[in-house]
Each structure stands twice: as C-alpha cells, then as structure tokens.
Write a structure and sequence with these properties.
Blueprint (H helix, E strand, L loop, with lengths): L8 H6 L5 H6 L1 H15 L4 E2 L6 H6 L3 E4 L3 E4 L6 H5 L10 H14 L4 E6 L1 H10 L7 H9 L1 H24 L4 E6 L7 H17 L8 E5 L6 H5 L5 E3 L6 H7 L6 E5 L8 H15 L5 E5 L9 H16 L1
Helix pairs in contact: 3-6, 6-9, 7-8, 7-9, 8-9, 9-10, 12-13, 13-14
Length: 319
C-alpha cells in the first residue's frame, strides 16, 4: 500500500523537517520516498508517494496535514456558493507530480509504478467536514438535503482527482488506483446513487490511456459489486473480507487485490506466515490476484518483517 515507506528509517530521515504535503510536492523527494520500499523490500511494483489532498492543494484549496489530526481545510465547503467558489485545477499546477513520476520511472527501470488518487467521495468528505471524521455525517446529509450542491461538489472532486491520475499515467505510471478511504461509511443505495457516478467520471479521465485501473476502499465489503461497476480492471479488498468470499460476491468476474491484515505484521512469524498463506489460497479462487496489504502499513511495523513477507510471497510464487 502507498504508506509502505513510513515504517522505514530512511523515510524518517529524508522527511526530517519537511512537512507532509511539501514532501509530496518536491519531485526529487517524492521520487526517493516512492523508491525506498522497492529497494528495501524487492516488491514487484512501486506505488507513487502522495497524499489524498494533494490535488486540492494544487488546485488552490487551503488545506494542510495537521500532525495527530490529518487533513484540515481552511474553510469547509458546505453550500452551493462554497462549491461555486472552488478554484479549478490546471495542468500547469500538476507539473511537480509529472516531474516526480518521470524521475521515479527513470530509476525503476522495468519495475512498474502504480499511480494513486483519492476517490471523489473521500475528497468531498474531507471538504465538507473540513477535517477527518468518523461517520461523515456532513457529506451524507448533503447528498439528501441538497443533492444539487452535492453533485456539483462530487463532480469537482471527480475532475480534480481524474486530472491527478491522468498526470501520473501520462508521465509514465503503468497502472492507476482510485482509493476511497471513507466509502465504507455509506450504504449501498447511497453509494450507487450519489458516489458511483463521480468515481466513474474520475476514471473517465484515464480510460483511454491503456493502463489497468484499480478501485480500492476500506470497509467496503458490501459495495464491491458497485465499485467494480464503475468500470475497473481490478477490485481491491480490505482485510475485513476473505478473498474467496469477495470473489463469490463478484461472480468471479474480476482480479482481486489484497488483503493481508496489517495488524498481523506484529504477530509471531508463524502466525503471520499462516495468514499470508491463507490469503494466497483464498485469492487463488479469483481470475487473478495481486497480493498486498488490506490497508496501510502501521508506522511501528518492523521493516525486516515486511521484507520477510515479500520473500515468503516470492517463494510461494516460484512454487
């Protein structure tokens, strides 16, 4: 997952004295952080180092990452006037992202780079709440109380996210993942009516580029079919649902990505190894399986454990 580097001492060293969003917008630094887990763990692909709110920052929305809190906006977006006043992301503003991808791809050689962007609902949820939220009541209320304003905001987020992905793919990324951190707060009916169209719109920006498209959300076990139906090549599954059950729900129609439980990275090795083998066995039911974590890497994870997990996976693949 995209946070793979944050448990590494070399990551902590290069980030010293550099704010999170600044580290994403310095091309040489973003490239270095993207490359660190590849060098350390010998994984089969890199995931572009960025943050869900970087497209907002590049568009001119006032936002920062507050330590211990998360993304905080200068002003929440809650009315039609607020949405109408939003700035528009420009291609020129995306140049630091394109440059970071170009630098990364040049260093990776034959190792592919997976592009990354937050899905429109997750972006919009931060914008309405103005900060992280447990239940996302603000955007969920807006969908029903003011659907026109919600649609306008979701479309703005979709175009902003889609352009962010497009910049990465056109600069050399080999695949793209739309990451919906907060979609799990939604019921299926609300997701289908108020969110799926915006996710489709975001991905429409990159459909003609020939890259595989991945759709991942957390807490989205009940939404997997709808998430597939926005038009993607791979569905990511978090740690909550076994992959064989995910494949059953999806009718065996699409490759799956996932879903080692990050909590087990600190368990005894024999427990973790058994779990990895169970995930691989469950994933074998799907048309294809991209093995990774079912959510982000906890910062306290021992990097040597991650390396050992990758070595285990490669040994099983060889078998």
């Amino acid at each position: 997952m995209r946070q793979a580097g944050r448990s590494l001492p070399e990551y902590l060293k290069v980030r010293e004295g550099v704010a999170m969003l600044d580290s994403c917008l310095r091309p040489e630094l973003a490239a270095e952080i993207t490359l660190q887990p590849v060098r350390r763990h010998d994984v089969d692909a890199a995931i572009f180092f960025s943050d869900i709110v970087i497209p907002l920052k590049l568009a001119g929305v006032g936002v920062d990452i507050v330590p211990g809190v998360g993304p905080v906006l200068d002003k929440p977006v809650r009315t039609a006037a607020d949405v109408a006043a939003l700035p528009t992301l420009t291609w020129e503003a995306l140049e630091p992202i394109r440059e970071a991808v170009r630098l990364t791809v040049a260093e990776l050689g034959k190792t592919p780079l997976i592009g990354f962007a937050g899905a429109p609902f997750t972006l919009a949820a931060y914008m309405v709440e103005g900060k992280p939220s447990r239940d996302h009541l603000g955007p969920r209320t807006m969908m029903h109380a003011d659907p026109e304003t919600w649609a306008a905001l979701a479309n703005w987020a979709a175009d902003t996210s889609g352009m962010f992905l497009q910049a990465q793919l056109e600069a050399g990324a080999s695949a793209a993942q739309l990451f919906d951190s907060w979609a799990g707060s939604l019921g299926l009916a609300d997701y289908t009516k108020y969110v799926a169209p915006a996710s489709t719109r975001a991905l429409d920006h990159v459909r003609g580029l020939g890259a595989p498209l991945i759709h991942f959300g957390t807490g989205t076990s009940e939404l997997l079919v709808a998430m597939r139906d926005v038009g993607v090549d791979v569905v990511g599954v978090d740690y909550r649902l076994p992959l064989d059950e995910a494949n059953r729900r999806l009718g065996g129609t699409v490759p799956l990505q996932g879903n080692i439980d990050p909590a087990l990275l600190s368990a005894p090795w024999e427990v973790l190894e058994a779990h990895v083998r169970e995930v691989i066995a469950a994933g074998s039911h799907a048309p294809g399986h991209v093995l990774n974590l079912g959510h982000g890497v906890p910062p306290e994870t021992d990097p040597t454990v991650l390396t050992r997990v990758v070595q285990l996976i490669h040994s099983i693949s060889a078998e």
